Amino acid sequence: MRILITYGSKLGGTREIAGLMARVLRDEGFDAEAAPPEAVDDVRVYDAVIVGGGLYANHWHHRARRFVHHHLHELRGRPVWFFSSGPLDDSASQERIPPTAQVRALMEQVGARGHETFGGRLESDARGFIAHAMAREHAGDWRDPGRITRWVRGVALELREAGRPWAGSAALHQEAPR
Ligand SMILES: Cc1cc2nc3c(=O)[nH]c(=O)nc-3n(C[C@H](O)[C@H](O)[C@H](O)COP(=O)(O)O)c2cc1C
User: Fold this and answer.
1) Which residues of 18-53 are buried (b: 16+ CB within 10 A; e: fewer)?
2) What separation in Å is there between the alpha carbon of 160 and the centre of ligand 1?
3) Residue 38 DSSP one-character state
4) Domains and CATH numbers, the chain
5) Any ligand 1 atom below 6 A from CB of 166
6) Helices 145-162 + 13-27 axis angle, to 10
7) What is the pLDDT of residues 6-63, one digit of tens each?
8) Does residue 53's CB lie within 6 angstroms of at least one atom of ligand 1?
9) 62-70 and 101-110 helices cross at what angle (nearest 10)?
Protein backbone atom coordinates (compact mmCIF):
# COMPACT_ATOMS: atom_id res chain seq x y z
CA MET A 1 0.00 0.00 0.00
CA ARG A 2 1.52 3.30 -1.08
CA ILE A 3 1.17 6.26 1.29
CA LEU A 4 2.06 9.91 0.70
CA ILE A 5 2.87 12.26 3.54
CA THR A 6 3.01 15.82 2.32
CA TYR A 7 3.29 19.09 4.19
CA GLY A 8 3.36 22.85 4.24
CA SER A 9 6.38 23.92 6.25
CA LYS A 10 8.24 27.20 6.46
CA LEU A 11 10.84 26.54 9.14
CA GLY A 12 11.30 22.80 8.60
CA GLY A 13 9.62 21.44 11.73
CA THR A 14 6.57 20.01 9.97
CA ARG A 15 8.75 18.61 7.18
CA GLU A 16 10.70 16.64 9.78
CA ILE A 17 7.48 15.32 11.35
CA ALA A 18 6.45 14.08 7.89
CA GLY A 19 9.83 12.37 7.54
CA LEU A 20 9.39 10.62 10.89
CA MET A 21 5.90 9.48 9.88
CA ALA A 22 7.25 8.03 6.63
CA ARG A 23 9.93 6.08 8.51
CA VAL A 24 7.40 4.71 11.00
CA LEU A 25 5.05 3.65 8.20
CA ARG A 26 7.90 1.97 6.31
CA ASP A 27 8.80 0.08 9.51
CA GLU A 28 5.15 -1.00 9.59
CA GLY A 29 5.57 -2.48 6.12
CA PHE A 30 3.99 0.29 4.01
CA ASP A 31 5.49 1.91 0.95
CA ALA A 32 5.51 5.42 2.44
CA GLU A 33 7.21 8.58 1.27
CA ALA A 34 7.36 12.13 2.56
CA ALA A 35 7.38 14.73 -0.21
CA PRO A 36 6.73 18.46 -0.48
CA PRO A 37 3.52 19.38 -2.35
CA GLU A 38 5.42 20.73 -5.34
CA ALA A 39 6.95 17.28 -5.91
CA VAL A 40 3.55 15.60 -6.16
CA ASP A 41 2.06 15.48 -9.64
CA ASP A 42 -0.64 12.91 -9.26
CA VAL A 43 -2.24 11.79 -6.03
CA ARG A 44 -3.91 8.86 -7.78
CA VAL A 45 -0.76 6.74 -7.49
CA TYR A 46 -1.22 6.70 -3.70
CA ASP A 47 -3.62 4.54 -1.72
CA ALA A 48 -3.74 6.96 1.22
CA VAL A 49 -2.54 10.48 1.95
CA ILE A 50 -1.49 12.34 5.10
CA VAL A 51 -1.34 16.13 4.84
CA GLY A 52 0.30 18.26 7.52
CA GLY A 53 0.68 21.98 7.97
CA GLY A 54 2.70 24.22 10.23
CA LEU A 55 0.31 26.67 11.95
CA TYR A 56 0.70 30.37 11.30
CA ALA A 57 -1.87 32.70 12.86
CA ASN A 58 -4.24 29.72 13.13
CA HIS A 59 -3.88 28.86 9.48
CA TRP A 60 -2.01 26.05 7.80
CA HIS A 61 1.07 27.02 5.87
CA HIS A 62 -0.25 28.01 2.45
CA ARG A 63 1.43 25.11 0.60
CA ALA A 64 -0.57 22.56 2.60
CA ARG A 65 -3.81 24.44 1.97
CA ARG A 66 -3.04 24.83 -1.71
CA PHE A 67 -2.23 21.13 -2.01
CA VAL A 68 -5.66 20.21 -0.66
CA HIS A 69 -7.46 22.62 -2.98
CA HIS A 70 -5.46 21.50 -5.99
CA HIS A 71 -6.05 17.76 -5.40
CA LEU A 72 -9.50 18.00 -3.85
CA HIS A 73 -11.17 15.64 -6.27
CA GLU A 74 -8.58 12.86 -5.91
CA LEU A 75 -8.32 13.27 -2.13
CA ARG A 76 -12.05 12.76 -1.76
CA GLY A 77 -11.64 9.31 -3.31
CA ARG A 78 -9.09 7.93 -0.85
CA PRO A 79 -8.44 7.78 2.89
CA VAL A 80 -6.90 11.03 4.10
CA TRP A 81 -5.62 12.18 7.46
CA PHE A 82 -4.49 15.66 8.46
CA PHE A 83 -2.11 16.90 11.12
CA SER A 84 -1.07 20.34 12.32
CA SER A 85 2.09 21.37 14.08
CA GLY A 86 2.21 24.56 16.06
CA PRO A 87 1.91 25.03 19.81
CA LEU A 88 5.21 26.17 21.29
CA ASP A 89 4.53 24.64 24.70
CA ASP A 90 3.55 21.21 26.00
CA SER A 91 -0.21 21.78 25.50
CA ALA A 92 -0.39 19.40 22.52
CA SER A 93 1.12 16.62 24.64
CA GLN A 94 -1.25 17.32 27.54
CA GLU A 95 -4.52 17.34 25.65
CA ARG A 96 -5.97 16.86 22.19
CA ILE A 97 -6.07 20.19 20.42
CA PRO A 98 -8.81 20.36 17.78
CA PRO A 99 -8.11 21.55 14.24
CA THR A 100 -8.40 25.28 13.62
CA ALA A 101 -11.52 26.50 11.79
CA GLN A 102 -9.68 26.65 8.47
CA VAL A 103 -8.27 23.13 8.83
CA ARG A 104 -11.67 21.78 9.94
CA ALA A 105 -13.24 23.24 6.81
CA LEU A 106 -10.59 21.55 4.65
CA MET A 107 -11.23 18.26 6.47
CA GLU A 108 -14.91 18.50 5.62
CA GLN A 109 -14.14 19.18 1.98
CA VAL A 110 -12.08 16.01 1.56
CA GLY A 111 -13.84 13.85 4.15
CA ALA A 112 -10.63 13.45 6.16
CA ARG A 113 -10.72 10.56 8.61
CA GLY A 114 -8.82 12.23 11.39
CA HIS A 115 -6.67 15.08 12.58
CA GLU A 116 -4.05 15.55 15.25
CA THR A 117 -2.23 18.62 16.51
CA PHE A 118 1.40 18.16 17.49
CA GLY A 119 3.68 20.64 19.21
CA GLY A 120 5.85 22.83 17.03
CA ARG A 121 9.41 24.04 16.94
CA LEU A 122 10.87 27.50 16.81
CA GLU A 123 14.63 27.92 16.84
CA SER A 124 16.14 30.77 18.81
CA ASP A 125 17.76 32.13 15.65
CA ALA A 126 14.59 31.84 13.51
CA ARG A 127 14.72 34.06 10.45
CA GLY A 128 12.04 36.67 9.77
CA PHE A 129 11.03 39.67 11.88
CA ILE A 130 7.98 38.16 13.61
CA ALA A 131 9.50 34.70 14.03
CA HIS A 132 12.60 36.22 15.56
CA ALA A 133 10.54 38.34 17.95
CA MET A 134 8.44 35.30 18.94
CA ALA A 135 11.56 33.20 19.44
CA ARG A 136 12.72 35.49 22.25
CA GLU A 137 9.99 34.04 24.46
CA HIS A 138 8.89 30.87 22.73
CA ALA A 139 11.96 29.21 21.23
CA GLY A 140 12.02 25.46 21.72
CA ASP A 141 11.18 22.10 20.22
CA TRP A 142 7.79 20.86 21.40
CA ARG A 143 7.37 18.11 18.85
CA ASP A 144 6.83 14.81 20.61
CA PRO A 145 8.24 11.87 18.59
CA GLY A 146 6.48 9.34 20.84
CA ARG A 147 3.07 10.91 20.24
CA ILE A 148 3.71 11.32 16.53
CA THR A 149 4.77 7.66 16.28
CA ARG A 150 1.71 6.45 18.21
CA TRP A 151 -0.65 8.51 16.07
CA VAL A 152 0.76 7.32 12.76
CA ARG A 153 0.73 3.70 13.99
CA GLY A 154 -2.98 4.24 14.60
CA VAL A 155 -3.36 5.36 11.00
CA ALA A 156 -1.48 2.22 9.90
CA LEU A 157 -3.84 0.07 11.96
CA GLU A 158 -6.92 1.69 10.42
CA LEU A 159 -5.54 1.18 6.93
CA ARG A 160 -4.76 -2.47 7.62
CA GLU A 161 -8.17 -3.13 9.12
CA ALA A 162 -9.97 -1.40 6.26
CA GLY A 163 -8.09 -3.33 3.57
CA ARG A 164 -8.64 -1.42 0.35
CA PRO A 165 -12.42 -0.93 0.11
CA TRP A 166 -11.86 2.52 -1.43
CA ALA A 167 -9.92 1.17 -4.42
CA GLY A 168 -13.09 0.68 -6.46
CA SER A 169 -14.53 4.09 -5.72
CA ALA A 170 -11.13 5.70 -6.38
CA ALA A 171 -11.16 4.15 -9.84
CA LEU A 172 -14.64 5.58 -10.41
CA HIS A 173 -13.47 8.99 -9.25
CA GLN A 174 -10.60 8.87 -11.76
CA GLU A 175 -13.09 8.41 -14.57
CA ALA A 176 -15.44 11.14 -13.40
CA PRO A 177 -15.36 14.43 -15.31
CA ARG A 178 -13.94 17.39 -13.43
C1 LIG B 1 4.81 34.10 12.88
C2 LIG B 1 4.41 32.83 13.56
C3 LIG B 1 3.07 32.57 13.82
C4 LIG B 1 2.68 31.39 14.46
N5 LIG B 1 1.35 31.15 14.71
C6 LIG B 1 0.98 30.02 15.37
C7 LIG B 1 -0.39 29.75 15.65
O8 LIG B 1 -1.30 30.49 15.29
N9 LIG B 1 -0.71 28.62 16.33
C10 LIG B 1 0.26 27.73 16.74
O11 LIG B 1 -0.07 26.73 17.37
N12 LIG B 1 1.58 27.94 16.46
C13 LIG B 1 1.96 29.05 15.79
N14 LIG B 1 3.28 29.29 15.49
C15 LIG B 1 4.28 28.25 15.79
C16 LIG B 1 4.60 27.43 14.53
O17 LIG B 1 3.45 26.77 14.08
C18 LIG B 1 5.70 26.40 14.83
O19 LIG B 1 6.91 27.10 14.92
C20 LIG B 1 5.76 25.31 13.79
O21 LIG B 1 6.63 24.30 14.21
C22 LIG B 1 6.18 25.89 12.43
O23 LIG B 1 6.16 24.87 11.47
P24 LIG B 1 7.29 24.78 10.35
O25 LIG B 1 8.63 24.68 11.09
O26 LIG B 1 7.01 23.52 9.63
O27 LIG B 1 7.20 25.99 9.50
C28 LIG B 1 3.67 30.44 14.84
C29 LIG B 1 5.03 30.69 14.57
C30 LIG B 1 5.40 31.88 13.93
C31 LIG B 1 6.85 32.11 13.64
Assistant:
1) bebbbebbeebebebbbeebeebeebeebbbbbbbb
2) 33
3) G
4) 2-166 (3.40.50.360)
5) no
6) 50
7) 999 999 999 999 999 999 999 999 999 999 999 999 999 999 999 999 999 999 999 9
8) no
9) 20
